[in-house]
Design goal:
CATH class of the largest domain: Alpha Beta
Order of helices and strands: EHEHEHEHEHEEHEHEHEHEEHEEEEE
Number of strands: 17
Radius of gyration: 22 Å
Helix content: 25-40%
Number of helices: 10
Distance between the termini: 22 Å
CATH topology of the largest domain: TIM Barrel
Number of domains: 2
Shape: elongated
Structural class: alpha/beta
CATH superfamily of the largest domain: Alanine racemase
Largest sheet: 8 strands, mixed
Length: about 375
């Protein structure tokens, strides 16, 4: 067995998830899904996604490099991010990626300069801040006027008028992304309404985008992952099929990450000690916040199971070895009686787990392995 802690990926579940997505968009050749590689860039994950025909959504030059190395065509890559460095823009230009999602007039000026230096005309979409409340954690909402992401609606008309005069820039689309781990469908309904209104307004002044990028954000069931291993893609895609009013020839692009890979991953960790204080029992593991930071960063819930015991349940705080009080995976969790050496599985860890790991305390990065269910 791989040395703990390690990430364990159910490639069979990932393939079934990808097949559900394929079926949902098969009747709509104008729908294109780009996997948000920031969720997980492990080659074990990327290979099935490549085989399924998805594109890639990147937010850094390193992610562009990883996507191309994994075999994804540059023509399937979109590049977003509020702070693109010059070398990252150059990398995108040199590889001829599908589109750069531009987030400010300041970025547009730099992009125009880099394009002029490279002698290229660059395809862009403006990321628009639609001021839609995603009803999710404040740290992962991106579509409100107060967030740092995107261009405010009142600035868009003048910016479009200015951009379409630029010989170095081809304005191809509009990009929206309202947040992450969205488990209610209402924000997506509202997003469609905002896009429809904006499209009508822009059409009246002579601009129609070639493509609309609606971002991602669909959430998963962290509480009961076994009951809902695959998110409700049918309801999600149906909203855009029925409510998004497209112009003739327009394409719709999606940037799904967590909803594709989160449920196929587990962080497996070994119990080092069981420590008992008056009124409190701790299961101290060899995994820490360096291996899975979401609970410490977002107070995020992950279901935890004891893989080594089927004894009576007891309450435990499951904590790691890091020298931080926030190094806690869960408090007052019911687990089958825990012993030193037991293996615990922290569920729903396929997204924003391994990819966010660090070497704080000079710890080793977790390894990974795969298996396949049917």
């Amino acid at each position: 067995m791989t040395t703990t802690p390690f990430y364990r990926y159910d490639i069979g579940l990932l393939k079934r998830t990808l097949e559900v997505i394929r079926r949902q968009i098969s009747s709509r050749p104008d729908f294109h899904v780009h996997y948000a590689i920031k969720a997980n860039a492990n080659p074990l994950i990327l290979n099935p996604i490549l085989e399924a025909g998805l594109g890639i959504d990147c937010v850094s030059g390193g992610e562009i490099e990883a996507a191309i190395k994994a075999g994804f065509s540059p023509s399937s890559i979109v590049f977003a991010g509020v702070g693109k460095d010059d070398w990252e823009i150059d990398l995108a230009l040199e590889n001829g990626i599908f589109c750069l999602n531009v987030e400010s007039e300041a970025e547009l000026d730099v992009l125009r300069e880099r394009a002029r230096i490279h002698g290229k005309r660059v395809r862009i979409a403006f990321r628009v801040n639609p001021d839609v409340d995603a009803h999710t954690h404040s740290n992962i909402t991106t579509g409100l006027a107060e967030n740092k992401f995107g261009i405010n609606l009142e600035l868009l008309d003048d910016l479009i008028a200015h951009t379409i005069t630029m010989s170095e820039i081809s304005l191809e689309g509009l990009h929206f992304h309202i947040g992450s781990q969205i488990v209610e469908m209402e924000p997506f309904h509202e997003l469609c309404q905002r896009i429809n209104t904006l499209q009508k307004k822009l059409k009246s002044v002579g601009f129609t985008a070639r493509h609309i990028n609606v971002g991602g954000g669909l959430g998963i069931d962290y509480k009961e992952p076994e009951k809902h291993p695959i998110p409700d893609f049918e309801s999600y895609f149906n909203i855009f099929k029925t409510e998004l009013e497209l112009q003739p020839g327009q394409e719709v692009h999606f940037e799904l990450g967590r909803s594709i890979v989160a449920q196929c991953g587990q962080l497996v960790t070994k119990v080092l000690y069981v420590k008992e204080n008056p009124g409190k029992r701790f299961a101290i593991t060899d995994a820490g916040m360096t291996d899975l930071i979401r609970p410490a960063l977002y107070d995020a819930y992950h279901k935890i199971t004891n893989l080594s015991s089927n004894e009576e349940e007891q309450l435990y705080d499951v904590v790691g070895p890091i020298c931080e009080s926030s190094d806690t995976f869960g408090k007052n969790r019911k687990l089958s009686k825990v012993h030193r050496g037991d293996l615990l599985a922290i569920m729903s860890a396929g997204a924003y787990g391994e990819t966010m790991a660090s070497q704080y305390n000079l710890r080793r990065l977790p390894s990974s392995e795969s298996f396949e269910t049917h």
